[in-house]
Sequence to fold (141 residues):
Amino acid sequence: MSLGNHVRVFICVVFMGVLVGVVYNAKKDITDNEYIETVKEGYLASFSEVSVRNAFNYAFFEPYWRYYQAKTGEHVVELSGDITFQGEKGHAILQFVVDEQASQFTAFAMKFNDVVLSANERRMLISMVYETWHMKQLAYE
Fold:
């Protein structure tokens, strides 16, 4: 091999090493921590018969939970997944804000197919999720 080929191989190896380093050090989603567990194991005020985890796991197709800390310092647990809402199949994203001192949370914001839901639509979506859970429970009995 000539000196030029050695230089090219060296540059390729260095480039691949940098690329692997960037990919390896890229920020990963946090999908398992105490805030996610607080929401999953908790209950929404009007629906105390079933945990959030169980209700949404029945209604969402492939639910995905992740945590992040907002720029405001709030602890946010985000749940996303596919669901049928108001007769339309689509992707929903729900955000819960967790109060770390009280180990409580509130449903904060929701989107369906990238459209922010109003307060009334949020209530409808949550009610539909729990109705789906209830109907599936009846089907298994």
Notes: Residues 18-27 have pLDDT under 50 and may be disordered. The longest strand covers residues 88-99. The two ends are 74 Å apart (CA to CA). The helical segments are 3-25, 34-41, 52-59, 119-140.
